[in-house]
Amino acid sequence: MNDLTLGQRIAHHRRRRGLSQVKFAELLDRSESWVSQVERGTRTVDRLSVLGEVARVLDVPANELLPGSFLPADGDREHPSVRAVRLALSGHPALAVLLDSSPEAISQSADAITELLGRLDEAPTDPAELEARADEAWEMAHASRFTDLGELLLTLIPQAELTAHRLAGEPQQDAFAALARIYQAAAAIMSKLRETDIAWVAAERGIAAAERSGDPLLAAAGDFRLAHVFLSGDQLSQAERVVNVATAALEPRVGDDSSPPLLSVWGALHLVGAVVASRQERPETALANMRRAQEAADRLDEDRDDFETEFGPTNVALHAVAIAVELGDAGTALRRAAAIDPSGLSTERRARFLVDVARAHHQRRQGREVLQRLQEAYDLTPEQVEGHPDVREMVRDLVQDEGQRIDPDLRRLAQRVAVLP
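-> structure tokens emitted (421 positions)
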């Protein structure tokens, strides 16, 4: 079976167990069309949790389903930003302030942290400067500069904690607002790297800081980040719960006179809900969420970036492409993609769009188009593309299809995403 694709291996073991596609789909809680597309190779199993469930139903080890030379080797490839953010979230820099708020205690705490981590004397000490550093963190996040952001957060998070806790009144609220945004940036990049445990901690701390800032919409934006954390970890029921609770809280406040930030957060949460529902094979729920997001975008009538959500008509259009891909409708995805101009969005969002377009071409077995879109995405955000599991899966399939005579451009990309040595 060494020359069989993933889909062919699944079909082989399904037949070995005497299961029809209908029965197999029922056991997986998936649709028959999903099973058919996977077995024909027009749809990939691009999440390890799904692969594990398929293996469980077929009663075979998961590694028997993947071609041996194409097994993922991601376990030993921890991104350097992961260690940096993990360290930044470890410990409690403001503990000395909580125990003793005297100037002497604050100074001793700052000195101790500086000795441990270094370079904290370069970090902000007032809310305005802290807000500027939060802007810097989000510029890096929107550009998918994971390594640079990890280095920044290693010193920025503890200093921001110390700054926020030693202030009082309105300056303290401003400092906690900046701290919340900094934690949300950390959650965003960790969820992109599928580091769910670290991203969850960062998101929850961001929500707590937002609550202390006195800005409920900033806290709702924290829920948006938390939903993305669970989505990236394929914890779909948790992601759905976060979305439903947050949108239910915001719903009574949504109307014709709603503020743009409120519409942005409400609409962005519905976009996450649409993606979650599409991955759960619930197209009606996905489309209902898309309608609510479109309603918010129509009211805004412009692309915005409230709370770093990049919400607006263009982002809704991009998500419509992603939803079509998730539902296996490559034709609709490509037709919608052709009408979109994403140039006004961040490089991170544009690259994600190109990956979704590549996935649509992949479902149609259009290898040259897949490679072209992935190369374009890599040129925009190398670190995001290198760590994207969907990209690795598509590149593995392209390499396998070409056999021994691999296109030089494909070989270079395969080496960049660690599919080939």
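The longest helix spans residues 169-192.
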